[in-house]
Structures are given as structure tokens and as C-alpha cells.
Amino acid sequence: MSKAAKATNAETDTEVESSSNEIEGHREIGGAELKAIAEAMIFVADEPLSAKTIADVVDVDRDAVAKAIAELVVEYDARNGGLQLREIAAGWQIATRPEHHEQIRAYLKSKPSAKLSLASLETLAVIAYKQPVTVPEILEIRGVQSPSAIKTLLDKRLIVAKGRKETVGRPMMYGTSKEFLIQFGLKDLTELPSIEDFQDLAGGSDA
Predict the structure, then answer these.
(1) Domain 27-98 belongs to what topology?
(2) Of the given ranges (98-107, 148-157, 196-205), which has the lowest mean pLDDT?
(3) Is there a shared CATH topology between the 27-98 domain and the 112-199 domain?
(4) Cys-Cys with 35: which of 68, 115, 118, 130 at CB 3.0–4.6 Å?
């Protein structure tokens, strides 16, 4: 056998072995198992998990994950338990049902927690409903300076800088962040909470 033929055979054997190893290390995941995996990943995630992230980790088609999540949503709704699967901030999260929020609030209020000061709360409300908004505009609405409140909200990652306004002095503009959506359990800004929900965060001393 010529050297060229031997080289060709060796390359072919290597390709077959490589393909065989890849197939051996990969297995098909059924719909029921994928649904269970997606639910478990959403449960342990620190923030809302997207179908794309799950698909990338499990190495399956994104549409298959989206279908699994849709089935999970139906199952959670049909069970009518205390939890639901909600789309929040472009991802999915297991959350409590709105009809139980009063009892949950009562429980959470009984536990010591680090809450926003009234100044930070008012500043966050202004930013949430008027964004993008500058510090001078916040001052005009609140009637008091808000530098420490702005710093607190930035430190808690509830707001982010949104660029500078094209006006005199080019002041920085602020808007709410993805963390804000997560903390309030919102899919997007069209689901902004009521003033009462903001008030539930009040407490502590001014920041």
C-alpha cells in the first residue's frame, strides 16, 4: 500500500473515531426530561433564566426548550398552587402568585431586612416613572437634593446611567436596571408597580 493510501486511511480512521466519540458522549433528551431539567435550572438560578441559556447549557434546540417552558407554565397554572412560572426581565422565574401577596408581605415584614430609605424610595419612584431623568429634574419633582439616594440606588444596582442629556451642562440621565425588574418581578416596564408596592420597600433611615 502506498504512503498516500496509508495516510488517507489513517485520516479516515481518525475521523470515524472522532465522530464515534462525539456520538458516544451525546444522548437524546426527551420532552419530559427536558421539562424537568428546565424547571430545576430555573429554580436554582439567581435571576430569571432565558430559554436560550437553558438550550446552550443542555445543548438542545431553543424551540424545544421554549416548548418545555410553555408546558410548565400550563402545568403550574393547572395545579393552582402557591407558585407560578413567570416571564420576568426577558427570562423565566418561579414566583409566588399575586393572590397570596398580602400574606407574603405580612410574613416578610415580620423579618428584619435592609429596606430602602424614604429618600431612596421616592427617588427610585421618580426615576422609574420619568426615565430617563436627570438629577436636576429629580430635584424639581422631589423638591430636595438626591445625591446620596442616587448613590444608594446605584450601589444596589436598581438604577443605571443612561447617557448624558444634550442640554446645558450635559447632566447624566438615569433609568431603572434589569435588577429593578427582577426585584419587582416585572416582565418589562409596562408592568411598573403601583405606588403601594413602592411603599412596601420603605423603612430604615435616609440614605
Answers:
(1) Arc Repressor Mutant, subunit A (1.10.10)
(2) 196-205
(3) yes
(4) 68
